[in-house]
Amino acid sequence: MPPSDAPPPHRYDRLYGALYARFDQRAHRVGSDALPLILSHQRDHATDDPPVPDAVLRVVTEARPPKGPATEVDFGDGRRTLSGRPGSVYLAPPDATAHWETEGSHAVMLLALPPDRIAALGGPSALAPRWGREWAAPQVVRTLRTLWQEAEAGDLSDPAGRLVADGLVTALTGLVARAGPARHDAEPALDGARLARVRALVEDTLEEGVDVAAMAEAACLSPSRFSRRFRAATGHAPHAWVMARRIARARRLLSDTDLPVVQVAAACGFGSQSHLTARFRRATGTTPAAWRAAARA
């Protein structure tokens, strides 16, 4: 049993531990408030996060592929595509339900910031420009890594260590607040020629997979600007649109060929038959085998 003076489990600890227990993770509690600090190695998943009262600072520390996995998040105001590159920073707002979808492997470091930390900056409005946005912030990344290193070394348990942790958490909060607005003016829709190049690239690379960076390169735009202009043109985030094309190819192969389902999965860029089945069921409400049987009935 834990010592009697151990801090009670933090609600974000409990939430994260339950939702993401299938992934390798390590956790520490830091500072006088015993804030959760988590390092999690994640792979393909689709997960719904219930609301928590804390803001959650999320930093990608590793990624495969190096350009970042395909990650989308929806806080109820539309899907956003994240680059997932190492060093990218994301701030999840408090009291919000979120749906996360990731394809690929990455490691993320997370720090839960309780309401009183946000209140000290003047309330949630102080961080409002950053809610639900991704940006590059080397100082934030370095400071969070320093906090993790101190926690890993076991140097944050005594009064002096807690003071160091409190200082680092305060610095992190201030750096995030000082980062400035991250919201963007509305982008024009992707023009027809660029959209055609992107469509051709996606169709040609469905089997091996294509990421947002490659799509953006085909459109001669940065990934973030491409994502906004692509959504304006199609009504979909790039990752969601690519997934729809993969499912469409799977439907066609299931209806028109005798390929085993495992080969259909490979031809559509899915890592396994089970991955295709999960995605296919989510998109169509049925399994690939049942779809094939119905199409041939």
Word description of this protein:
By secondary structure, the chain is α+β, with helices and mostly antiparallel strands. It has two domains: 168 residues, Regulatory protein AraC (Jelly Rolls, Sandwich); 104 residues, Orthogonal Bundle (Arc Repressor Mutant, subunit A). It has eleven helices and ten strands. The strands form two sheets. It has a six-stranded antiparallel sheet. A four-stranded antiparallel sheet has the order 3-8-5-6, with helices on one face. Helix 8 crosses helix 11. The longest helix has 20 residues. The termini are far apart.
From the alpha-carbon coordinates, what is the Rg to the nearest angstrom?
Answer: 21 Å
The helix/strand series, from N terminus to C terminus, equals HEEEEEEEEEHEHHHHHHHHH
Structural category is alpha+beta
Looking at the structure, the CATH topology of the largest domain is Jelly Rolls
The percentage helix is 40-55%
> Please, how many helices?
11
Strand segment tally:
10
Give the overall shape, derived from the CA principal axes. Answer: elongated
Number of domains: 2
* Overall average pLDDT: 82
Report the sheet with the most strands, covering strand number, pairing sense and barrel closure.
Answer: 6 strands, antiparallel
- Low-pLDDT runs of 5+ residues are 1-9, 181-185
Strand order of the largest sheet: 1-2-9-4-7-10
Distance between the termini: 60 Å
